[in-house]
Write a structure and sequence with these properties.
Chain B: Residues 2-248 form the ABC transporter domain. Chain A is α/β, with parallel strands linked by helices. Chain A has helices at residues 3-6, 9-16, 24-37, 53-56, 114-117, 122-126, 134-142, 371-379, 384-400, 406-422; strands spanning 80-85, 88-90, 102-106, 147-151, 159-164, 171-180, 185-191, 197-206, 211-217, 225-234, 239-247, 251-260, 266-276, 283-292, 298-308, 312-321, 329-338, 344-353, 359-367. Chain A has one domain (3-369). Chain A is built from ten helices and 19 strands. Chain A is globular. Chain B is α/β, with parallel strands linked by helices. Chain B is globular, with a radius of gyration of 18 Å. Classes of the chains: A alpha/beta, B alpha/beta. The A-B interface holds A 370-373, 375-384, 386-387, 390-391, 393-395, 397-398 and B 50-53, 73-75, 77-79, 83-84, 86, 89-95, 99-100, 103-105, 107-108, 111, 143-144, 160, 164. The structure holds adenosine-5'-triphosphate (ATP) and magnesium ion.
């Protein structure tokens, strides 16, 4: 047997890591950290419910791209369109990256853009304690593409990152850095499955009074596997808002690590996941960690999952209130609607509080469709399928409400209705 | 026309017979009232007719204008013109009242092969009906029955009835929980729908409602059967003397009722 054959998949994966050009010291540091912590196993506290095997494997499990017959998302929105095809920037399909009030460069071409080199990997590193995030370190070390976005003004035009999956074996690793200067504002839209396997990290630095809006739709691919990591630092009076819609996907793990470092800041993260395990497995995991390190911070976590045919949903959400973070207001809710008895939802809500004058609450529920409500609707002539869809939408409403802009909210609802129409019975 | 013949119903989960041979025919345009002691099976009859789960029909039949009700889905019964105003209207958080009403109306229209109502016409229709029932427009913006008072819920049932224009209306204790003025409003709403062809089955404990909605027939239900049928005077008699004598006459023990 050769040496290669004796390696575990994790060792084989690590051995294959090559460090692309640019951000050299940051990449080397990330690789060192990664080697020190190793890739996760099922025994790791936050990987007990999600099997990392397919994310670790040296090669992605082949995944056929899904032919989507719906109109493209956000098509009617006046936006700056930036396309990545199987994890590689597609200049032809993208708009000109110039937009006033914003500087955008490609990670692979930027060399060492000054502002970005002090951020690249920094927020990810901060997010490694107290919980290790090995895949994010892997991403920082080996990402070949991604965007460095610096926002200096209030940008009306959303930046839309579009991830196209075409190759059955693509392994997309993208790393974005977004820096909002004081008082700046931007909306980042992300949509698409990105690759057969994708690892996407976004580091977001939100300066004083800046506002960051993020709306993500993770594509309709059934077979893709995806891990994402958002690492944000939220300064005084700033707002961070992120919403994710996931429908389908064999494996999704969305990590979100938010650090409130300035007083009077807001951090809102929400998600709606719809899974039907009928033709493909569906496993969806939201793992959130919000740290309150300043006074009068307000954080919200609102996560809803609709699961059927053996679909699995996971929620691991933590609020950590550091000493001195007085008047913190932390709210967390995770709920699952199981449309049958084969599906499963596991939740681990955690609060850790070291300040005395705080208000934190969390709740988690698992339930089925309310039969009494269903009968009431049917008795008024609404057919079962449509009545069920109404009840599912009403279940998801709290998460959708977290999207501030109505036009995006409406677009998300149309997608939800589409999914419900396709996954009847 | 609604025809109920020898209807026997037991609970699906338990060996408990609730309806023990109900016979009732409602001709078009007529108003029938049902009174009867608590637990005699009045709501059960209304639920079985509208298709709620949990009951098993062991014998008998029910037809609405030729449609075999007991074979049809609840939504098919509704589209065929059956409407039940619930004794306990259901709260549905997250579903807006307007969405609910529009979806219901359009579902029924679609099932009958009619065109959907336009958004504009629908709004006009709802506004007009709500106004006549003195239902606040703000209430319509809220989720279905959520945060409604008991009386508001009952009025909302009648609003739905007015909008859906069913052929056969069953009102299960719509008067309970209503204040005097609301009772008058609701009765006027019901009377406005009396057009000579639409029929009503009004379940109530109180003669008072029947002063407003004048029934053609009054039935007394006890122990899962209709034990007595008469005109409006029967309701007056019950109001005065209670059920004891009637139950006695039919050999039904008080606690059995
Ligand atoms: N789902 C059920 N489970 C158990 N018992 C039931 C159920 N539905 C009805 N019953 C029983 O059947 C009997 C008839 O109930 P029903 O609600 O039809 O009475 P009712 O005549 O409408 O009474 P009320 O005047 O109090 O409204 C009662 O004894 C009731 O407890
Ligand atoms: Mg009753």
């Amino acid at each position: 047997m050769s040496a290669v054959e004796k390696m575990t998949p994790a060792e084989a994966r690590l051995a294959r890591v090559t460090l692309p050009e640019g951000m050299g010291p940051q990449r080397r540091a990330a690789l060192d950290r990664l080697v020190a912590m190793g890739l996760p196993g099922r025994r790791d506290e936050y990987w007990r419910w999600t099997n990392p095997t397919d994310l670790i494997a040296p090669e992605p499990v082949p995944a056929a791209p899904f032919a989507d017959d719906e109109p493209a998302l956000f098509d009617d929105v006046e936006r700056l369109k930036i396309v990545f095809r199987d994890g590689v920037f597609d200049a032809e399909a993208s708009d000109d990256l110039a937009l006033s009030g914003i500087e955008i460069s490609r990670l692979s071409e930027a060399g060492d853009v000054n502002w970005a080199s002090s951020l690249y990997g920094t927020l990810e590193t901060a997010g490694q304690t107290p919980v290790e995030r090995p895949f994010a370190a892997l991403n920082t070390a080996s990402a070949e593409d991604g965007l460095l976005i610096r926002v200096t003004g209030k940008i009306e035009t959303p930046v839309n990152l579009i991830y196209i999956h075409e190759s059955e074996s693509s392994d997309a690793i993208l790393h974005h850095v977004v820096k909002l200067e004081e008082g700046a504002e931007i909306t980042v839209l992300e949509n698409g499955p990105a690759g057969a396997r994708a690892n996407i990290v976004m580091e977001v630095d939100v300066a004083k009074t800046a506002r960051f809006h993020h709306i993500r739709v993770q594509g309709r691919d059934h077979e893709r596997r995806m891990l994402t990591g958002i690492f944000a630092r939220i300064n005084e009076g700033a707002l961070f808002k992120s919403f994710t819609l996931s429908s389908n996907g064999a494996l999704t793990r969305n990590e979100c690590v938010l650090d409130i470092v300035g007083d009077d800041a807001n951090a809102h993260v929400a998600g709606a996941a719809l899974g039907d395990g009928k033709s493909q497995p569906f496993h969806h995991d939201d793992t959130i960690f919000i740290t309150h390190g300043a006074e009068r911070g307000e954080s919200r976590q609102v996560f809803k999952k609709v699961l059927k045919n053996g679909a699995q949903g996971i929620f691991q959400g933590k609020i950590l209130v550091k000493p001195g973070a007085q008047k913190t207001d932390g709210y967390q809710i995770s709920q699952a609607l199981l449309l049958d008895e084969d599906s499963q939802f596991l939740a681990k809500p955690e609060l850790e509080i070291y300040a005395d004058d705080v208000q934190c609450s969390h709740g988690s529920t698992t339930g089925a469709i309310d039969e009494t409500a269903l009968f009431y609707l049917r008795s008024r002539g609404i057919p079962t399928e449509e009545a069920t869809a109404l009840l599912v939408l009403s279940f998801l409403a709290d998460a959708i409400e977290e999207i501030e802009q109505e036009r995006f909210r409406d677009e998300i609802v149309i997608r939800l209705e589409g999914w419900l129409a396709r996954h009847r019975g | 026309m609604l025809e109920i013949k020898n209807l026997h119903v037991k609970l699906e989960e338990e060996d408990k017979q609730i309806l023990k041979g109900v016979n009732l025919t409602l001709e078009d345009g007529k108003v029938h009232a049902i009174m009867g002691p608590n637990g005699s099976g009045k709501s059960t009859l209304s639920y079985v007719l509208s298709g709620r789960d949990g009951y098993e029909v062991t014998e008998g039949e029910a037809h609405l204008n030729g449609l075999d009700l007991l074979e049809a889905e609840p939504e098919e019964r509704a589209a065929a013109g059956l409407f039940l105003a619930f004794q306990y209207p259901v709260e549905i958080p997250g579903v807006g009242n307007m969405t609910f009403l529009r979806t219901a109306l359009n579902s029924q229209r679609k099932a009958r092969g009619e065109d959907e109502i336009s958004a504009g016409d629908f709004l006009k229709l709802v506004r007009a009906k709500a106004k006549s029932l003195k239902i606040d427009a703000e209430m319509l913006k809220r989720p279905v029955n959520v945060g409604f008072s008991g009386g508001e819920k009952k009025r909302n049932e009648i609003l739905q009835m007015a909008i859906l224009e069913p052929k056969m209306c069953i009102l299960d204790e719509t008067d309970s929980g209503l204040d005097v003025d609301a009772m008058r409003l609701v009765s006027e709403g019901v009377n406005a729908l009396r057009d000579g062809t639409r029929s009503f089955l009004v379940i109530t404990h109180y003669q008072r409602l029947l002063d407003h909605i004048k029934p053609d027939y009054v039935h007394i239900m006890a122990d899962g059967r209709i034990i007595e049928t008469g005109g409006p005077e029967l309701a007056l008699e019950v109001e005065k003397n209670g059920y004891a004598a009637l139950l006695d006459k039919h050999g039904i023990a008080q606690e059995m009722a």
